[in-house]
């Protein structure tokens, strides 16, 4: 038997000498002084533990992405999944039909005037943080509308080719992440594989969603993370990924941000007509009389205003941007070591679950001034220790950036000033369910509740306890399958 007082990175401390001296000296054990086991951290506070987590990760992992020149075998892929590390296969999708066929003319010929969902924003900032003049933040979602595919594609192209000085046009991004390639864009699905063979074999599942993305260099996807193993393939143009590992949760300054949506000014319901002070999002074009319906539609899209959602809701979202590292930084942000990779046409990226990613794009005449990609989302395996440990380290990271007790106060306020005020509230649910289970409560509502419960657990709030693997109430029976915890929240 050997005892190691392992310090950071497994260094053996002076304790082994102690141990050697006392082996066999049972008569003297009562005189042994009590000593706490060494933590291995370089300080004794929560923030030291978080700092150690991030720096140890970077000591042990490179910030260069592994580049493979052919698809990995299922076993090789599984090694990356187990280590939760990304890789890129250069030209991994070069043989796909989509690579050979897709260009502006082909896409229009196949999709014709099928109505497709498109996200519209004034500055290409769908699902992102905007800052108000008084430093308050909003999480703003795009205006979503349906338009004929050919119109969407031509608008994306013409915005890309028009001179910067010309009048501002709304930015369109076809980006519904709802399995759209097997539904809305099904005429194009024949041009890509139905599955990624190495992922299907290794993960023993088929993708939950296969998504089609069409945009231009005006759109940016803000830093966020997903509960999916993601195989992302660039077909036309380029994508520029900035990636942060899950252990950097404490760097990204996640906050519960008030949710809002871009709405054409002339469609804002009168009850919501006043936008929050300080918003300068509108291009403030005045309505023009005698326009045809499509012209009116186009004019309306040039005048989007931000409306706070009703009922009010907040979304936990990263507010730090690795490209503006001084702004909204936490004490840990300077420890972040972003991994950056550009996907060229035909490249395939494995983006592991829970990695934060920010994505920008670029185009060229040879890509028809389009950036077009396809991705395969495989549900994260919530069993094992990866999910609970990641959730734990995120929670600790959040706690250590809060002033003492702020978490508890916040939770007390939010929870007990809402509709449950004064009641004994029993919420039974579980962290870590997949998309399907969410359906029984409505995805967003369910997602919001999960976040809340997760926060509750992480903050160890008084009056909150895990009551174990629960017996479902009859009406929740369908939701319970595969769930792990029940949480009981009691009025303090
Ligand atoms: O391509 C993009 O703009 C974002 C991609 C993304 O967020 C994802 O695949 O999860």
UniProtKB/TrEMBL annotation:
InterPro entries: Cupin_8, JmjC_dom, RmlC-like_jellyroll. SMART domains: JmjC. Residues 181-393 form the JmjC domain. Residues 267-294 are annotated as: Disordered. It comes from the Eukaryota. This is Cupin-like domain-domain-containing protein.
């Amino acid at each position: 038997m050997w005892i190691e007082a392992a310090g950071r990175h497994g260094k053996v401390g002076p304790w082994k000498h102690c141990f050697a001296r006392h082996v066999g000296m049972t008569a003297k054990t009562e005189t042994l002084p009590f000593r706490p086991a060494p933590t291995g951290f370089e300080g004794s506070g929560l923030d030291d533990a978080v700092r150690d987590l991030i720096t140890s990760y970077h000591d042990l992992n490179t910030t260069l992405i592994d580049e493979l020149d052919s698809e990995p075998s299922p076993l090789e892929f599984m090694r990356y999944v187990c280590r939760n590390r990304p890789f890129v296969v250069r030209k991994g999708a070069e043989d796909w039909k989509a690579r050979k066929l897709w260009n502006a003319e082909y896409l229009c010929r196949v999709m014709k005037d099928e109505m497709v969902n498109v996200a519209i924003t004034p500055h290409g900032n769908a699902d992102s943080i905007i800052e108000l003049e008084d430093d308050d933040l909003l999480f703003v979602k795009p205006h979503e509308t349906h338009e004929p595919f050919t119109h969407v594609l031509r608008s994306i192209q013409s915005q890309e080719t028009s001179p910067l000085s010309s009048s501002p046009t709304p930015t369109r991004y076809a980006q519904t992440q709802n399995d759209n390639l097997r539904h809305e864009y099904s005429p194009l699905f024949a041009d890509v594989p139905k599955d990624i063979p190495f992922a299907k074999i290794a993960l023993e599942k088929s993708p939950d969603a296969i998504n089609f993305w069409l945009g231009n260099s005006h759109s940016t996807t803000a830093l966020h993370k997903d509960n999916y193993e993601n195989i992302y393939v660039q077909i036309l143009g380029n994508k520029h990924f900035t990636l942060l590992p899950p252990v950097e949760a404490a760097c990204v300054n996640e906050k519960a941000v008030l949710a809002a949506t871009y709405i054409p000014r002339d469609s804002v319901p009168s009850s919501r007509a006043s936008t929050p002070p300080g918003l300068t999002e509108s291009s403030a074009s005045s309505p023009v009389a005698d326009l045809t319906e499509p012209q009116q539609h186009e004019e309306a899209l040039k005048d989007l205003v931000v409306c706070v959602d009703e009922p009010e809701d907040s979304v936990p979202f990263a507010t730090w941007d690795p490209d503006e590292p001084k702004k909204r930084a936490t004490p840990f942000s300077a420890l972040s070591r972003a991994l950056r990779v550009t996907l060229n046409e035909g490249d395939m990226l494995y983006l592991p679950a829970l990695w934060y990613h920010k994505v920008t794009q670029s185009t060229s005449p040879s890509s028809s001034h389009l950036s077009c990609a396809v991705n395969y989302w495989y549900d994260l395996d919530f069993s094992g220790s990866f999910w609970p440990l990641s959730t734990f380290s995120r929670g600790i990271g959040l706690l250590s950036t809060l002033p003492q007790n702020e978490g508890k106060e916040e939770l007390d306020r939010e929870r007990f000033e809402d509709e449950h005020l004064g009641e004994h509230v029993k919420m039974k649910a579980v962290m870590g369910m997949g998309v399907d289970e969410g359906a029984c409560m409505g995805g967003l509502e369910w997602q919001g509740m999960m976040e809340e419960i997760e926060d509750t657990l992480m903050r160890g709030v008084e009056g909150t306890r895990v009551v174990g693997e629960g017996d479902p109430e009859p009406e929740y029976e369908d939701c319970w399958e595969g769930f792990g915890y029940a949480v009981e929240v009691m009025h303090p």
